[in-house]
Amino acid sequence: MLLFKEIAPLRAYLNGRKLKEDTVGFVPTMGALHQGHIALVARSIANHTITVSSIFVNPTQFNNQEDLVKYPRTIERDIELLEAAGCDVLFHPEAPEMYPSGFATKHYEWQNITNSLEGAFRPGHFDGVITIVNKLFEAVEPHAAYFGQKDFQQCAVIRKMISEFNLSITMHVCPTLREPDGLAMSSRNVRLSSAERADALLVFEALRFIKQYQNSLPINELIKNAEQILLKSAVMKPEYISVVETDSLNPAETLLPQQKYVALIATWCGNVRLIDNMLLQD
């Protein structure tokens, strides 16, 4: 696996490969890799002759600086995982390479896609996401990019960005990978204590309740019951429980048969913020 820390040599190498008609798949990450990330790499390898992954803990998408400081960084292990998976190229820049002196992020408002849910609870978060993903796309210029469904709203934001910026990139959203007991794989899970790890399963239980009873209870009752499931643990502090349309992220008032919906939860489990979601139609 080749390692690049600067954009210019990365782009030169990839341009040379593209001249040989190689196609490039891209898996952007913030590191602290788990099998969910590796599954994205495997999907890219299956579809492309070159797979690039990036590891960059993006400071502009953290509205909470303490969260940025505590975000796990495991670069040596990450490199081992990527090499074992067969990744061809790792782009691992330092912050000045991505954000030269004087750089400022722009503000984007795309209705509920950027303003609701994570956008409401983490002001400026998606401005940072859009900025860094676009910068990474400019550096790699991939034919396709791979993301995990666990960050459902982020995927909606990036899909909108690709459309708004007229980018010639195919976006693949891959299913959330879960532990055998249902907990969604996340880089933040390593920060959970053993007791909090057990309580975190309530998120999956709450989502399953919404999906199971979607046709027999009104949405407000689904959400109320899901909240009660989370509050069975004293360490759980829910931020939002919501059912929205999958394309617009507009809140659902009633579930219409011709529309697809997703249930989303964000909650604090002790000092760790967890997010998860579940499509209501398979």
What does this structure look like?
The structure is a single chain. By secondary structure, this protein is of the alpha/beta class. It has 2 domains: 2-174, Rossmann fold; 187-276, 2-Layer Sandwich (Pantoate--beta-alanine Ligase, Chain: A,domain 2), CATH 3.30.1300.10. It is built from 12 helices and 9 strands. The chain has helices at residues 7-19, 35-47, 65-70, 75-85, 95-98, 112-115, 118-121, 125-140, 152-164, 194-199, 201-212, 219-230, and strands at residues 2-4, 24-29, 50-55, 89-91, 144-148, 170-174, 236-245, 261-269, 272-279. It has a 6-stranded parallel sheet, sandwiched between helices. It has a 3-stranded antiparallel sheet with strand order 7-8-9, with helices on one face. Helix 8 crosses helix 9 and helix 11 runs antiparallel to helix 12. The relative contact order is 0.13.
Query: How many DSSP helices?
Result: 12
How does the overall form come out from the CA principal axes? globular
Give a count of the beta strands, DSSP E runs of length 2 or more: 9
Structural class: alpha/beta
Mean pLDDT: 96
Tell me which CATH architecture of the largest domain applies here: 3-Layer(aba) Sandwich
CATH classification, class level of the largest domain? Alpha Beta
Whole-number count of domains: 2
Question: Segments where pLDDT lies below 50 for 5+ residues?
Answer: none
DSSP strand (E) fraction?
Answer: 15-25%
